[in-house]
Amino acid sequence: MTIRVLLADDQALLRSAFRVLVDSEADMEVVGEASDGAEAVRLTKERHADVVLMDIRMPGTDGLAATRMISADPDLSDVRVVILTTFEVDDYVVRSLRAGASGFLGKGSEPEELLAAIRIAAGGQALLSPAATTGLISRFLAQQDPDDLGHRDPARGERLASLTGREREVLVQVAGGHSNDEIAERLEVSPLTVKTHVNRAMAKLGARDRAQLVVIAYESGLVRPRVE
């Protein structure tokens, strides 16, 4: 199966470099290029993209708004958005994860990392850099008023209460940036059992992927951010 990739960045030179890299791989191809968010959303629909490499800062409709639009469209529920950013420690990245992005990657990453990120996102694993993403969310939410956490979406709070004890336990581990294999070892269960709990938690909480589970765990107050 060929992974269909859409490139969204306002810098033509970067798009060209990404195109050469992606098209050099046998299992993926670039199906379109967009210079702003609105064009990215339109081309995602028209070209049936599997993964969108999305820059955050673009003129007009930015990457944040475009990510939210893609995430909210039922017809694009299988599309995964990977945020590309110059600054990995950036509150826009967290907002993008909240809007539905599957993860993020620095523009200074090695070519192999970018290609791996595309494959991981296309495979539904989604959370690209658990430790970095978790740390970023933790630092950002640590700056928020603790009394506000968990009150943005009352319905989500109710759904959180529907999780079983084991599902909540697994969710805490996911928020810690641990893989299914690591969680299985920690909880002394099989990786398949962990995957089942993760999938059930995603379904109950309305999360698209693991990245969303991390955000929900912090925003709900189930996991408290640490201030360094």
TrEMBL record:
Superkingdom of the organism of origin: Bacteria
Annotated PROSITE patterns: HTH_LUXR_1 (PS00622), HTH_LUXR_2 (PS50043), RESPONSE_REGULATORY (PS50110)
Pfam families: GerE, Response_reg
Name of the protein in question: Response regulator transcription factor
4-aspartylphosphate modified-residue sites: D55
Domain HTH luxR-type: 156-221
Keyword set, alphabetical order: DNA-binding, Phosphoprotein, Transcription, Transcription regulation
Domain called Response regulatory: residue spans: 4-122
